[in-house]
Specification:
single chain, 236 residues, alpha/beta, five-stranded parallel beta sheet, 5 strands
Length: 236
C-alpha cells in the first residue's frame, strides 16, 4: 500500500507507514488541491481491483467480456481503453449512430486528422498527375489536403475546383527545401505524398523533419538511361 500511494503522489508528500493509505493521503502536502482527489481515486480503484469488488458486477456481462477480448487482442493501453469506455458510457452515445465497419468509420471527417500535402512533379495533364487528382477527389471530404507543385499548369484549376489550395514553389531556388519546410510547418502538414521518382528530394526532407511520407513511383526506366528519361522525356 505504501508503495502504491508513493507512486500516485510522485513523492510529493511524507507518509506514516503505519497508518492506512487514505490517512496517509489526507496528510500529504500536494502543490495543487485537485491532485488529492485524483490520487485517492486511483488508490481506491487499485484496492478495489485487487479485492475483486470492482469486477464482481461485470463477470457475467457479455458486453464486458467481448470488449475486454478486443482490448487484450489488440494490446490496448489503459489510457486508450479509458477513452473508449468514456465514449460508450456517454449519455449521447447510441449504438445505432455508429457505423458497422472500420471503413465506414474511417471515412468520416474529423478535426484530429492530420493535414496531408501532395507534391506533384508538375501540373500538366498526364497519368502521374491524374493519380494525384484521383487521390484528392477521394480524400477531400474527410481529409485536410493542400497541393504543392514546382510549376503551374492546366491541372492547377482542376485541384482548385475541388476547393484545394495550390502552392507553386520554385525548385530551382537555393533555399527551395528550406522555404518548402517553412510552408509545410505553417500549414501544419504532418503527412507528405511525393509523386513520381523525380521528388526524391522531398522524401529526404520529410525524413529530416520526422514527417510521415508516401513516395509514389510510377516509373520503371533502364538504369543506364535514367538521365536521358529524366531530362529529355519526363520533364518536357
Amino acid at each position: 500500500g505504501f508503495e502504491a500511494a508513493s507512486r500516485v503522489t510522485g513523492g510529493k508528500c511524507a507518509f506514516k507507514k503505519g497508518a492506512p493509505i487514505v490517512d496517509q493521503l489526507d496528510d500529504a502536502a500536494f502543490t495543487e488541491k485537485r491532485s488529492l482527489s485524483g490520487a485517492l481515486k486511483k488508490v481506491e480503484d487499485m484496492e478495489r481491483v485487487h479485492s475483486g469488488d470492482l469486477t464482481m458486477g461485470f463477470q457475467d456481462s457479455w458486453a464486458a467480456d467481448q470488449l475486454l477480448g478486443v482490448c487484450l487482442k489488440n494490446q490496448m493501453k489503459n489510457e486508450t481503453i479509458d477513452e473508449v469506455l468514456q465514449v460508450l458510457q456517454h449519455m449521447n452515445f447510441h449504438s445505432e449512430d455508429v457505423p458497422s465497419t472500420a471503413q465506414e468509420l474511417r471515412s468520416l471527417p474529423h478535426q484530429l486528422r492530420p493535414v496531408c500535402a501532395i507534391f506533384t512533379h508538375s501540373l500538366e495533364r498526364n497519368g502521374a498527375n491524374n493519380f494525384c487528382l484521383y487521390i484528392a477527389r477521394l480524400l477531400k471530404n474527410n481529409q485536410n489536403l493542400t497541393i504543392f507543385s514546382p510549376k503551374a499548369g492546366p491541372m492547377k484549376e482542376d485541384f482548385e475546383k475541388l476547393g484545394l489550395e495550390v502552392t507553386i514553389v520554385d525548385t530551382t531556388s537555393k533555399s527551395f527545401l528550406k522555404d518548402l519546410s517553412c510552408a509545410l510547418q505553417e500549414r501544419k502538414v504532418e503527412i507528405l505524398l511525393a509523386n513520381t521518382i523525380m521528388r526524391c528530394d522531398i522524401i529526404l526532407m520529410a525524413a529530416q523533419l520526422r514527417m510521415r511520407s508516401v513516395w509514389v513511383i510510377h516509373e520503371s526506366w533502364p538504369q543506364d538511361q535514367l538521365d536521358h528519361y529524366a531530362k529529355e522525356v519526363f520533364m518536357c
